[in-house]
Amino acid sequence: MSRVTARRRMRRITPDADIQRPDTLAVEEPLEIRIGGQSLTVTMRTPGDDIDLVHGFLLSEDIIGSAEDIVAARYCAGTDDQGRNTYNVLDVTLRTPVRAPARSFLTTGACGLCGKTALDEVRTRTRFPLPPGLPAVDTRALSAMPGMLRDRQSVFDATGGLHAAGLFTAEGRPLAVREDIGRHNAVDKVIGWALRESRVPAHDLVLIVSGRASFELVQKAVMAGIPMLGAVSAPSSLAVDLAIDARLCLVGFLRGETMNIYSYPERIRVEPGADSLLA
């Protein structure tokens, strides 16, 4: 955990004390992603699982469609003031070389795109459109997933400052959990894991995130063919619009035994005796 956390001095004031001591913080460092030596983008992330992050990011941006599209991903030489490699530059070699596009990624809430343009772009770019008739997930299995996600947040326990994303089977078995200072990076990391494990399109998996459900996170799920996204907090209006448009079941406020279903409620199966879950 040495590179994902750092110690910094701080002053803590409470009604009973005024003390100075070290605090454990989540590390935030830039990762520059290059394609064939040409800079593509820089993202601020928590170091770790960078290869998964790059695979997931490139899939989300429709630059690759499978793990086989990447021939190699290597860290470039980059040193700190003590001459140590920072591992903050990663160069990707593609099987079919492409020119790194100018940055026009759908990655922020302030990207300047109107809602219809954003929806149309995701619809036309995804290689794995969600088919109709996808299987339902039991309420009990779904409601247990955030707790299992939280139990696997080891760095959050130390710092209190990281987002998490996890991929689960429809029956509720956790497959991959990743943490990061950025919620979009955490999602890219689990999608990258799925891609490298030949689980994309992920039509049989559920994505759970520890925060809110933004348009960007729904977009990433759609690009990976994930049919269900559950968030412990609220979705945005455009996230719901995209979920409806793309046939993704979007669940918000997934806390304990309560949940709000914003799209395709028929994909949530209420078990006998659990009717109060959807009250």
Show the helix and strand layout:
Blueprint: E1 5-14, E2 17-26, E3 29-35, E4 38-45, H1 50-60, E5 70-75, E6 89-94, H2 115-125, E7 137-138, H3 139-151, H4 154-159, E8 163-169, E9 174-180, H5 183-196, E10 205-209, H6 215-223, E11 228-231, H7 237-246, E12 249-255, E13 258-261, E14 268-269
Parallel strand pairs: 3-6, 7-14, 10-11, 11-12
Antiparallel strand pairs: 1-2, 3-4, 5-6, 8-9, 8-10, 12-13
Helix pairs in contact: 1-5, 1-6, 2-7, 5-6, 6-7
What does this structure look like?
- The chain has 279 residues and is an alpha/beta fold.
- The protein is 27% helix and 30% strand.
- It is built from seven helices and 14 strands.
- Average pLDDT confidence is 87
| Low-pLDDT runs | 107-113
Estimated helix fraction: 25-40%
CATH class bucket of the largest domain = Alpha Beta
- Category from helices, strands and their pairing: alpha/beta
Succession of helices and strands: EEEEHEEHEHHEEHEHEHEEE
Spatial separation of the terminal alpha carbons:
42 Å
* Spatial shape: globular
% residues in beta strands: 25-35%
**Domain tally:** 2
- The total strand number stands at 14
If you consult CATH, what is the topology of the largest domain? Cytidine Deaminase, domain 2
| Name of the CATH homologous superfamily of the largest domain | Cytidine Deaminase, domain 2
CATH architecture of the largest domain: 3-Layer(aba) Sandwich
Summed up, the helix count is 7
Order of strands across the main sheet: 9-8-10-11-12-13
Brief digest:
The protein has 279 residues and is an alpha/beta fold.
